[in-house]
Amino acid sequence: MEPEVASTLEASSGLRAPRDHGVFRIAHWSDLHVGSRTPGGLEVEVALRALLSGLRQLEVDGLIVSGDLSKFGKRDELMLTRELFDAYGYGRHRRIVVPGNHDVPPGTDGAMFREIFETQYPYVEEFGPKVWVAAFDSNVVDQRMLFERRWVNVRGLSLIHI
User: Fold this and answer.
1) Nearest-angstrom CA–CA distance, 42 and 2
2) What is the model's pLDDT at position 155?
3) I need a surface site. Which of 96, 125, 130, 138 has the fewest CB within 10 A?
4) Is this model's pTM higher than 0.90 or not?
């Protein structure tokens, strides 16, 4: 395990509660940006492997990642992320992911993200015992991405339901 990541896990290990049948543990991450490097120079993939290993050691039941899983929304970045989740036991029924603005490449509508992670939005899913999660993709594609074929960050849309 990389020293930078190991020290983070050691610092958080004191938060570990005794395993109890009435407890459903969820980890929440965002802004992984697989395809880039950490401020310390590590490839994010290396850090992500260590973090996923730590989740397994902490017996985390489910993983929620709310956007920016990838650096540029490239197929290889998204596939690598999914493969790592799967390899560490956070397959389709143990993870919830929603795309962020970095996960929707220019000129697309997020279909590749939905295909790779086998999901549609919006959806509500029973994630654990008495744990329900509503997932929304609030990305709004800027028309300049579609017609001018240039990088313009998509923007989110506030979702209010009364």
Assistant:
1) 9
2) 58
3) 130
4) no
Quick one: DSSP state of residue 94? G
10 Å CB burial of residue 36 (0-12, 13-18, 19+) is middle
* Cα–Cα distance measured from residue 74 to residue 72, given in angstroms and rounded to the nearest whole number: 5
Taking the CB of residue 70, how many other CB atoms lie within 10 A of it? Answer: 27
- Rounded to the nearest 10 degrees, the angle between the axes of helix 44-57 and helix 75-87 is 20
Write down the pLDDT at residue 39: 86
Distance between CA 112 and CA 117 in Å, rounded?
A: 9
Taking domain 24-156, whether its CATH number is 3.30.70.3040 is answered by: no
**Sign of the torsion angle spanned by Cα atoms 19, 2, 4, 42:** negative
DSSP 16-75: PPPP-TT---EEEE----BTBB-TTS-BHHHHHHHHHHHHHHTT--EEEEES--BSS--H
* Interatomic CA distance for residues 106 and 72, integer angstroms: 9
91 SS3 class = coil
- Residue ranges per structural domain of the chain: 24-156
Mean pLDDT by 10 residues, the chain (162 residues): 46 49 88 90 91 94 94 95 97 93 82 94 88 84 58 54 38
| Backbone dihedral angles phi then psi of residue 63, each to the nearest 5 degrees | -125, 130
